[in-house]
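User: Can you help me understand a structure? I only have the sequence.
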Amino acid sequence: MTANGLLQIAIFAAIVAAIAVPLGSYMARVFAGERTFLSPVLGPVERVVYWVSGVDAKKEQHWLTYTVAMLLFNLACFALLYALLRLQFFLPFNPQGMTGMEQNLALNTAISFTTNTNWQNYGGETTLSYFVQMAGLTVHNFVSAATGIAIAIALIRGFTRRSAQSIGNFWVDLTRCTLYVLLPVAIVVGLVFVWQGMPQNLGGYVDATTLEGAHQTIAQGPVASQIVIKTFGTNGGGFFNVNAAHPYENPNGFTNLLTVLLEFAIGAALTMTFGKMVGNMRQGWALFGVMGILFLCGVLVSYWAESAGNPAFAKLGIDQAYSASQAGGNMEGKEVRFGITDSSLFETTTTDTSTGAVNSMHDSFTPIGGLVAIVNMQLGEVIFGGVGSGLYGMLLFAIVALFIAGLMVGRTPEYLGKKLESREVKMAMLAMLSIPLAALGFTALAAVLPVGLAGPENAGPHGFSEILYAFTSMTANNGSAFGGLTGNTPFYNLTGAIAMMIGRFAFIVPVLAIAGSLAAKKLVPASAGTFPTDNGLFVALLLGVIVITGGLIYFPADVLGPFVEHLQMQAGSLY
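Assistant: Let's start by predicting it. Here is the structure, written out as tokens:
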């Protein structure tokens, strides 16, 4: 670890904190239907969208109606993308003549992008046409992100309303999020990416001859427009197979910084949106503080582990120390353009959120470095998290934490003036337990079946880690992978598709049920016995519940993989 590396992490954290308040306040105005600086331009467009789709923007929905609208919309998105993937050979903008995607892979991919997971069992530049990359993947990057944000806003309304039967209008929330939040940033930053060297064209691939005389095919296409929303919408699906390690997808240090900032931007800002909408910014800062502490712990552990290198190499006399002539540490699988610091920062941000993009290969991280990525996802990706999902996941943990606090003092827990009764706690636990049930269940299945064991490139604990990482990533709707697992098989395509649907919709439906239940409640005035939720004690309680819950559920599986592999490495095995 170096002073320069620590300074880079500190600067990144400071920028995230600086942009959270203005962006969060702006989103609060957008979803309240208030006028913003973009209203003169986008207001007419918004009204046309409602008119064409037959939506009454003033008519709100009961939580069940909101849920059904969300599910039907996502079903339609899945069907459309599946059709595009299967029929791409007959569609335009296909200069390389890409054929239709195989049905099991198309099923997995369509569900992956519908659920904001963006798990990829294929190489983008060798599998997909430009039309599918644009009309299929890029469009889904917008609408799946907007869906997650809409759910978070609906839950916030549950806390702010009293004796209400509605939690908003899904179609309105979806439209406003896309028009006023996602699209403007995507256009501006997309142009910045083009300026920095990302391709944005419809030309065919270029054949070139290298200085050594070898033949090389250079892929290009509409890259920048997809990359900006894959990061801002915490989607992660890359245009190229090696994702953000590709120089066309991540040209330099500046684009790398923009990428990690975009990953955290909405997740961090939504905590301030929460504080603004509930009328107490300290509530938002409390949630931001919990997320920030967990982020710093993760990135510093990852940075330390990768900087320390591999003791097995040290025994062979290999110099792994940082110096003016070398980066030092564990550089296996990392881009020399980014080094240890930016690789560790990227690994942490992409798994803290549901982005899943990578600028280095997680399979090549040290066992402890790889464990950080796994644990980030196992905690529910509430460390700023996916757009929307990070906030509503954190609020579910807050409900459980306050329930535990209520048991300690023998009174009904309250949060923001709403009594948390059995319905809310049951729904919170139902959502939270669905994730480990799918992740660990499918991991166990793959670890004992021959079709599952055929996937990992490695045997022993590292091979188990590859399986555990895959199903943890898919269930957490992250989409990143260790990189040592062959996932394009019927077994992994089908089980992965089920895991991704459970991770998305088995979590969202209980969240909306909680939103509806809270909206119907009356506000309870604070009293001397009310547990404060905007101070350090609440932050500590919430941190404890998150860490202990994740530790108790996943610790045995983590021991069988990364911990055993770490002990092997310390013993001098080159695994």
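Now, to help you interpret it: The two ends are 24 Å apart (CA to CA). The chain has 19 helices and four strands. Let me know which part you'd like to focus on.
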